[in-house]
Structures are given as structure tokens and as C-alpha cells.
Amino acid sequence: MSLTLDQARTIISAALEHGHGAGMNPLCVAVLDAGGHLVAFEREDGVANRRFDVAHGKAYGAISVGMSSRRLGEAAVDRPHFVNGLIGAMNGQLVPVAGGVLVAGDDGALIGAVGCSGDTSDNDESAVVAGIEAAGLSARI
Q1: Which residues have CB under 8 Å from 31's CB, separation 6+?
Q2: Residue 72 and residue 90: Cα distance in Å, rounded?
Q3: Digits of tens for pLDDT over the chain (141 positions)?
Q4: The domain spanning residue 120 has which CATH number?
Q5: Does residue 138 contact residue 38 with C-beta atoms inside 8 Å?
Q6: How many domains does the chain have?
Q7: Which of 8, 49, 71, 97 is deepest in the core (most CB within 10 A)?
Q8: Which domain holds residue 50?
Q9: Which residues of 11-20 are buried (b: 16+ CB within 10 A; e: fewer)?
């Protein structure tokens, strides 16, 4: 199973809807496939210009290392040299804070990752989870 464009669009739409319902700041959402390629991206009006890089870095780090950006942030506390090495190896494309979540398909295999930025990291993550679940997929935090 692979992550489809229709699923990515559903994830984005539901994540943004979740953000509106929760009164969050404007968000941007990046959906990547299992190879780390961008499938879809959307940013709301009012999102700062570098938020794409943050959302993408959360998702890209998650799919590249096989753990959510929240877990990468925890690893940064316990093993800072390891995470700094990852950031260098990935040319800075890893953002180790909550908001980047792995996506699993029906069979449990990883099919992508979603990153969100615009509000607090915890709120970004909750929007991502809502989007993934709305697409009928499983979020791995």
C-alpha cells in the first residue's frame, strides 16, 4: 500500500479543520510518502514564510529515521550527539519537536509521514493525528 494523493488531501483538509475547531493559529501541513517525497502541501493564510520548512522537517525526519518528531525530540535530550549527527547528515532537514507523525496503512506498514507547523508543537501534532485518522489510516506517535 502506498499513500495516495486523495489520502493526502483528506489528511490536510481534516488537519486544518481540526485546527479551526480548536482555535489554533493558521497551520501548514506537509504529507510525504514512504520515500520522503512530498505528496501534498497546504498552508493557510497568515502562516509565516518558513513554516513549510518546519512542517517538512518534522515529517522528513520522522520518515527518514522511523520515529515521530516527538520521539526525535526526546532522543535529542538523551542522545544529543546522535540527533545533531542526524541533522547534519540530513542537511538540516530534521526538526526534532512534536508535529511530525508516521503514517501506517491497513497492514501496519509505514506509508509516509505528515508534518504540521503554525501553532504549538503539541497542537500541531494533534491536528496531524486528526488528519491521519480521518483518512482511515493509523498515526504512529
Answers
A1: 3, 8, 11, 12, 38, 39, 40, 41, 59, 112, 113, 114
A2: 14
A3: 799 999 999 999 999 999 999 999 999 999 999 999 999 999 999 999 999 999 999 999 999 999 999 999 999 999 999 999 999 999 989 999 999 999 999 999 999 999 999 999 999 999 999 999 999 999 999
A4: 3.30.450.150
A5: no
A6: 1
A7: 8
A8: 5-140
A9: bbebbbebbe
